Sequence to fold (501 residues):
Amino acid sequence: MRIHDVRTRRSADDFPRSEHLAWKIAEVATDPVEVPADTKAMVINRIIDNAAVSAASAIRRPVAAARAQALAHRTSTRGAKVFGIEGDYSPEWAAWANGVAVRELDFHDTFLAADYSHPGDNIPALVAVAQHVGIGGSDLIRGLATAYEVQVDLVKGICLHEHKIDHVAHLGPSVAAGLGTMLRLDAETIYHAIGQALHLTTSTRQSRKGSISSWKAFAPAWAGKVGIEAIDRAMRGERAPAPIWEGEDGVIAWLLSGPDHTYRVPLPEPGEPKRAILDTYTKEHSAEYQSQALIDLARRLREHIGNLDQIATIVLHTSHHTHYVIGTGSNDPQKMDPDASRETLDHSVMYIFAVALQDGTWHHERSYTSERAHRPDTVELWRKISTIEDAEWTRRYHSTDPAEQAFGARAEITLKSGEVIVDEIAVADAHPLGARPFERKQYIGKFTELADGVVSQSEQERFLSVVEGLTRFGPGTLGALNIVLSQAVLDKAPTIPPGIF
Fold:
C-alpha cells in the first residue's frame, strides 16, 4: 500500500490533477489487476449476506415504501431487478429500493477504523447497474473488489464522525469507483464521477442521533443512487468540482479538519491486488456493530449471574465510539426510552445489553417489539446500565494491528450484596478473530434462517446455486441474482400511501 498525504490546497497553488485524491482513486479503479481467489470468495459471501437481510426486511414499512418508489420507474427494455418482485426497473431506483432493504435491519457487514462504514452498501448499486447494462459475474466481482477497497481505505484515512459528517460520504465515491471498474471506464470519467458523488453525499450525522428514524436505512441507498447518477453524467462528459477533497472551499477545508490538517490515505500500489474486503466483518446480530460483542458477552454472563434481580448496577468500560454513539456518553435520553423507535433502540447499548442478559439471545424482530421494550423488569435493568470511556479500549479500537484491535468492552456488574462480577470481550464471536468466525457455512446458515417463511425453499436453493457459481455467469445473465417472493408474502407488507410518482 502507498500512503497519500491529503490536505487543503489554495486555488492559486500549483496542484496537478495527478495529485488529487479523486484521481488517485480513479487510477486504482482502472488498474486491471486480477482479483485474488479469497477476495472473490468473500464478495460472494457478502452477496449472500445482503440477500439474507433483504429477505428479513422485505415486508417492513421503509422497504415497502422504497419498493413502491422503484415500481414507478419500470423500463420497457432490460433493466435492473428489485428484490422480491419480477420485472425490469431503472437501475438507480432499483439500487435505491434494494439499498434500503439491505440496510433496514442494521444487520450486514461493517468496517471500523478512523471512521465507520457498512461496505456491503456498495453491492445494491453495482448489481443494479450490472443487470441493466448486461455485465457478467466476473466483472461484477471486479467492481465490488474496487468498491470495498476504496471505501475501506477512505475509512482508514479520513475520520468523518468527529466533525458530525455521516459515513455515507465515503460511500458515494466508493460506488462511483466500483462502477468505473465494473464498466471498464477510463480514469477521466471515474475521476469526475467520484467528485460529483462526494459533493452530493456529504451530510450530517443527525440521521444517527437523538430520535433515529428510518432515514438511517435510506441514507446509504441515497449514496448508491447518487453514485450511479454521477457515473451516468460523467460518461456523458459532465465534469466535477475539483479538487473535491483538497480544494480551498472543498470537503477538508470546510467540513473536516480544515486547511492545517493532513490526512493519510492508504491506496494499493499499481498491480497490487485489492484485498480490503478481507478486513471487513459481518454481523451475527441485528444491532449496531459495537453491540455485537456485548450481546455475546451478555449471553455468557447471564449464566454466571443467575438471578438478574440481584444486580445493582452495570458499568460498561468501552471505547470512545461505543460510549458516545450508542452509550450514555451520547446524552440522548431517547436511548433509555421504551417508546423509542426501533432504530434508536438499535443504537442503545444499554437496552441491548439488558435484553441480551435476560433472553440469552438476540432476534431482529422479537428483541425490538414495543412489548419487549416496555417489560417492567427490562426497563428496571436497562436503567441500571451505563457506559464510560476507557482509554485502553479506545486505543485498541484504533489499533492497526488486527490481533490487538478490539470493539468490545469490560463489564463490571455490582450486585446488591456488594459482590462485583467482571468479564470482558474484545471482539464478537462472529468476527474473524472471534470464538465462531463466519465462513461460507455461516453465511449460508444466516441466509436460510432469515429467508425461512419469506423465500420458498426452491427459490433459496436456486439463488444459492447462482451466487456460488457467479463467475460462470456471463453478460446479460445477472438478473438471476434477484430473489422473487410470493404475492402472499408481499401482501403482508404495510400499504404505502401514494406519493408523487
